[in-house]
Amino acid sequence: MRLDLLATERPLAYGAPAANEWRGTGMAGNGSSLRGRFQDVVTSEAELREVVSPPSGKADAKVISFIDDVAAAFIAQSPFVLIASANADGEMDVSPKGDPAGFVKVLDEKTVAIPDRVGNRRLDTFRNVVQNPRVGLIFLVPGVNHTLRVSGTAIIVRDRALRESMEVKGKLPDHVLVVEVERVLSHCAKCMVRSRLWQPEAWPDAAGVPTLGEILVAHAGLAETAAEVETFLEKDTREQLY
């Protein structure tokens, strides 16, 4: 068994839901069925503003259109970024990327570059970007309660010099996601404070969390046991991290 084949052993047409993806939800994918399940559905910004007052001038003013020194310093300390993308039909994906802090390169005030490391070969973000270049990024720094949000338009490149600048343990990324920056803003700490995300003493007991092996067996219909899949995953992580 090879982990990088797990996603292709039972292929689905790209964008088609798995058989159990919408089970029991009544969702048709466009929200129309959802509306029938609730009595007070908000459908306009005007309705939103009836409940939530407009943001302060400071909140509006915090959005800039480039990576300044402050944003660059935050990105340089971040070992983890979430990338949101969508295909031509608007079907969404959010993919996590992680490496040693500073792995995302600020090429100039309008451009950031994110290396793509070895993975399961699904290429979810890249398949979306070739159809729809719009992306959104959230940078996190462990122990820091505020985050940095960046959005813009992306392309996928293989320039050798750029990939060489992103070498880790003798391995170059095959591809690099390069984003032309359009919006940059900070996100306040309240969600982190509420969740106590960086406070180990507040973390829930993880004993009941399904292992990745259990999830793959359940969702991909694998013949192997969860324990067998976990053994493979551990070996793959040790030997194929880069």
Short summary of the structure?
This protein is of the alpha+beta class. The chain has 10 helices and 7 strands. The chain has a domain at 55-195: Pnp Oxidase, Chain A, CATH 2.30.110.
Overview of this protein structure:
Helices cover 28% and strands 23% of the residues. The chain has helices spanning 3-6, 32-35, 45-51, 57-61, 69-76, 124-129, 160-164, 190-195, 212-220, 226-239; strands at 80-86, 92-98, 105-108, 111-116, 134-140, 147-157, 175-187. It contains 10 helices and 7 strands. With 242 residues, the chain is an alpha+beta fold. A 7-stranded antiparallel sheet has the order 2-1-5-6-7-4-3. It has a domain at 55-195: Pnp Oxidase, Chain A (Roll). 15% of the residues are buried. Residues 7-28 have low confidence and may be disordered.
Reported for the largest beta sheet, the result is: 7 strands, antiparallel
Which strand order spans the largest sheet, edge to edge or round the barrel?
2-1-5-6-7-4-3
Q: Which architecture of the domain at 55-195 does the CATH hierarchy give at level 2?
A: Roll
Kindly provide the name of the CATH class of the domain at 55-195. Answer: Mainly Beta
> The CATH topology of the domain at 55-195, please?
Pnp Oxidase, Chain A
User: How many helices does DSSP assign?
Assistant: 10
Strand residue content: 15-25%
**Structural class, judged by helices and strands?**
alpha+beta
Approximate shape? globular
Q: What is the number of strand segments?
A: 7
Distance between the termini: 20 Å
